[in-house]
UniProtKB/TrEMBL annotation:
Amino-acid positions noted as binding L-homoserine in the UniProt annotation, renumbered to this chain: 192
Taxon lineage: Bacteria, Bacillati, Bacillota, Bacilli, Bacillales
Keyword NADP: yes
Family: Belongs to the homoserine dehydrogenase family.
Coiled coil segments of this chain: none
Pathway: Amino-acid biosynthesis; L-threonine biosynthesis; L-threonine from L-aspartate: step 3/5; Amino-acid biosynthesis; L-methionine biosynthesis via de novo pathway; L-homoserine from L-aspartate: step 3/3
UniProt organism field: Melghirimyces profundicolus
Positions bound to NADPH: 107
PANTHER family attached to this UniProt entry: HOMOSERINE DEHYDROGENASE (PTHR43331:SF1)
Gene Ontology MF annotations: homoserine dehydrogenase activity; metal ion binding; NADP binding
Name recorded for this polypeptide: Homoserine dehydrogenase
Amino acid sequence: MAEEPIRVGLMGLGTVGSGVVRLIEDHQNDLCHQTGQGVSIEKILVRDRQKERKVAVDPSLLTERPEEILKNDRIDLIVEVMGGIEPTRSYLREALENGKHVVTANKDLMALHGAELLSVAARKGCDVFYEASVAGGIPILRALAEGFSSDRITKMVGIVNGTTNYILTEMARKGTPFQSALARAQELGYAESDPTSDVEGMDAARKMAILATLGFHMDLSLDEVTVRGISGVTPEDLRFAAQLGYVLKLVGIAARNGEKVEVVVEPALLPQAHPLAAVDGVYNAVCVYGEAVGETMFYGPGAGAMPTATAVVSDLVTVVKNMRLGGNGRAIVAPYREKRVKGADEIFAKYFLRLRVEDEAGVLAKLTLIFAEAGVSLEKVLQEPGCSGDEAEIVLVTHTASRDRLDEVLLRMEELPAVRRIMSHYRVEGGE
Ligand SMILES: NC(=O)C1=CN([C@@H]2O[C@H](COP(=O)(O)OP(=O)(O)OC[C@H]3O[C@@H](n4cnc5c(N)ncnc54)[C@H](OP(=O)(O)O)[C@@H]3O)[C@@H](O)[C@H]2O)C=CC1
Ligand SMILES: N[C@@H](CC=O)C(=O)O
Ligand code: NA
């Protein structure tokens, strides 16, 4: 090939970084055809050069000194797959200030400081692409930024964390204990370095903030996302959900009514016929609803080395094409709508509640009175004997109610002596 290759500075050589190296090597010929240039990795930043690697690389490429990439005039483009907020944010700022384009898989950084990095990039005429940061190998950001640019998106509902979807699937299908399923997800390279952010929903919340910002053109940060993870989900919840015809998933919902939006991540029950109910294991999916297009759905692997590397290297191809066309720094439209977030009285859903109550006459009547007084009507009631002789287990599913009404019901139940414990409560998504 006559032209010089594009020279890449790779930051990170863990799960995703190793996949990126492998993909660039294995698909070099196709990449040349796509971009008109070869792609060559010039330097790789790691914490520890001596560490054993999952992929064979020339040891002279490895460095522990970020300046060998950031101040390297031969490098045109940085691929950041090291993760974390600092020092990553400072490195990427410096790279952009030095006129280097950036491709990143870092949702923590993009959810918190994406606007800042994009504005430096625009000022310097550089690209920042981050497709791998949401739903791994699914090209969902591209779809929102380009495929739906003529439409107005009203709702996005997704399974956007592979680790928790893998754990819930293993628990539901094989009865695998939570901790063993999490350990396996870590071995498979799905989990974050601190898996608490997967399990407690923060990883999904960061992704939903990115999706909602792009989809609704509002500057929606993590503060606007209501988050609940799956650490409280029990095998009994999964069993009762199945008995009532539901599947329990960690779901992200970003919905717009008029000019107000709601962004939430929480374990939710989906009717078995819901398109997301069949999304199992490490797979992710996002349903996108638009005023003109109606319902669409994007499905694919949400984590893991090669699927994530595909998103990273495809972004790299886009950057190289932009470099050739001279259209850099203009790819992502900055938010242009005023941010308006719904209150608890404007968020409507059905809810599932599981209670342990005293097994005596009149308890059900007291419970239904609480619902009636809060203006919440019931769709389903299921009663089973509890684990001890004087207890019963009651499962209730409401009709659509506002979130503040549900909170009132929960508060009043806690005050009722006949209710020994509220075991769980979940939103029921879809199937209205
Ligand atoms: N794993 C997945 O499936 C997905 C991950 N992501 C995102 O991709 C990014 C990378 O994830 P993953 O590959 O799993 O992470 P890993 O922990 O497997 O790899 C991180 C790499 O970055 C290097 N690194 C970390 N901090 C520093 C630092 N301060 N200075 C120099 N090098 C550093 C590490 O070096 P060393 O090896 O020497 O320790 C390691 O090579 C994260 O932002 C993650 O959220 C996005 C989608 C999917
Ligand atoms: N830990 C994340 C990795 C991809 O973003 C997940 O499990 O989805
Ligand atoms: Na993606």
